[in-house]
Amino acid sequence: MHRTVARPVVLAALSCRAGIAHTHPSPSPAQSRVRLGLAAARARNLKTMASKAELEAVPGVSKPDPATQDYIFQQTMYRIKDPKRSLDFYTRIIGFRLIEKLDFPDSKFSLYFLGYHDASEIPEDRKERVNWMFQQPATLELTHNWGTESDPDSKMHNGNDKPQGYGHIGFHVPDVNKACERFEKLGVEFVKKPDAGSMKGLAFIKDPDGYWIEILNGQNSQKLV
Fold it and tell me: What is the residue-averaged pLDDT of the chain?
């Protein structure tokens, strides 16, 4: 729930292999063709792991400490400019449910927690709900510092413009093409459509603050190996 560190769900390396330009300003068509060609070459030369034993032997990898067996990857946090726009996007378009909202008047900020949960799962009692919410895996925390929605100079850094750092979050969907057809009808901005780039069958869209979201499918991703 820290206000100064964004915690990624997925690394940005895959988007590089997908043929997505990470530069700002936007590259020329010729530059884009060169980058897509380089990405395709990298994809062809990709050496994938053959076994779980090889994964465990990757330099720097350690076996999980038994002390961490009850840990849960609980949240990723984004700062947002306008909660009305962001909540509309993540509930109406992505299908999340708002499961908790915490206001901090003294510090003038609010936290919104979203996830894929049926309404019947969410406790009615406030204390029980907060306790339950902080034990759910993979929630999205949106942090709104009051006043940014009306500040013309307020803009969030998406991590993909220079200087690069944070990359994106990702959602598995049953059918990438159908999901993207729906997103297009709803006016969602695309970074990459499913048939673009060197890696087919996955897409990247943007949320209202410009954060990237990967749209993927497990079976499609088998083509990587």
Answer: 86
